[in-house]
Amino acid sequence: MLTERQNLILKHIVDAYSQTGEPVGSKYLADHLPIKVSSATIRNEMSVLSHNHFIEQVHTSSGRVPSYQGYRYYVDHLTEPIPLEMKARDYITETLDDSFKQIDDIVKQSADLLSQITDYTALTFAPTLQSQDVVESFRLTQINHQNFMAIMMMKSGLVQSQPFLTEEALTPGSSAKVEAWLNQHLRNQPLAAVTRSLENEVAHGGQPLADFTQIVNAFMMVASKLQHDQFFVSGRSNLFHGMGAEAFANLKPLYSSLSSAADLATILQPSGRDVSVRLGVELPNDLWRNYSIISGTYDAGEHGTGRIAVIGPTRMFYPRVMGLVDAFRDELQTRIRSYYHDYDQ
């Protein structure tokens, strides 16, 4: 472990570098440390930190920047989330108003707002679908002449949809007939059972759905979406703020990873903490080595748990972003629990 003075110097190096992007020297520290200490003493302490791989020198500058080990020590021992001021919390609460009609609305809106406030990339995952969740109803909505929307609503309040195009125009009577059959035979069943029934209809062409394969396929796609993690990404282009040409060279694979629930699962592994930090070099995918991921888990009670995260450069100002993630985690938890409470009444 480091001494109290070494802790103080390392903390100020990380904080200063996070805000300016410039290597930090002994003169800066002598002017800004809350204790009176000479530049010579600071240089000696920085030499110890450097020898132990907490800081490193870049190019020929006399200043130092945090190393991976320095960031890890800083996050684990030297900083905590900065609680949001009441004005900021009120802004989040007011922006995330109660006008959303389904869980996806508040989850997506949270990603958009978190990205806007931080200027980083934000991710939000809806609560995981519970195995006992059953289908509340099916709905078939006509958009125009041959465009329709297949909508499936779950007892838990989750709603998913899939637009599709029919080869021939459906009459209102035909679409109503299909919707009525689905609600009569498949509603109030677990999603897995509904999926099997729909697959059986496609395989065997049973009546009365034999002439409506496109509709059945659309509802199968809806069921598939519900069985996979529902997530939203906002501020993708923020990945390249302050990054060099190397980041742009990885643009396509980075964007691809942000579109894959499987890829995101590898970088958002639960830590057991309300808010956790993973540094890029700790991640299995080398694409993220210059980034850090601050994530939090929110608990929707019996309706499952969800995730919220911010992806930013390694030198982000961790206390502020950790505080924001914690605030959004708390807001999502409160709002989604309230939604389910009202829905279950």
From TrEMBL:
Pfam families: HrcA, WHD_HrcA. It comes from the Bacteria. InterPro entries: GAF-like_dom_sf, HrcA, HrcA_C, WH-like_DNA-bd_sf, WH_DNA-bd_sf, WHTH_HrcA_DNA-bd, WHTH_transcript_rep_HrcA_IDD. Residues 1-61 form the Winged helix-turn-helix transcription repressor HrcA DNA-binding domain. This is Heat-inducible transcription repressor HrcA. Keywords: Repressor, Stress response, Transcription, Transcription regulation. Negative regulator of class I heat shock genes (grpE-dnaK-dnaJ and groELS operons). Prevents heat-shock induction of these operons. It comes from Fructilactobacillus myrtifloralis. PANTHER family: HEAT-INDUCIBLE TRANSCRIPTION REPRESSOR HRCA. Residues 104-322 form the Heat-inducible transcription repressor HrcA C-terminal domain. The keyword Transcription applies. Belongs to the HrcA family.
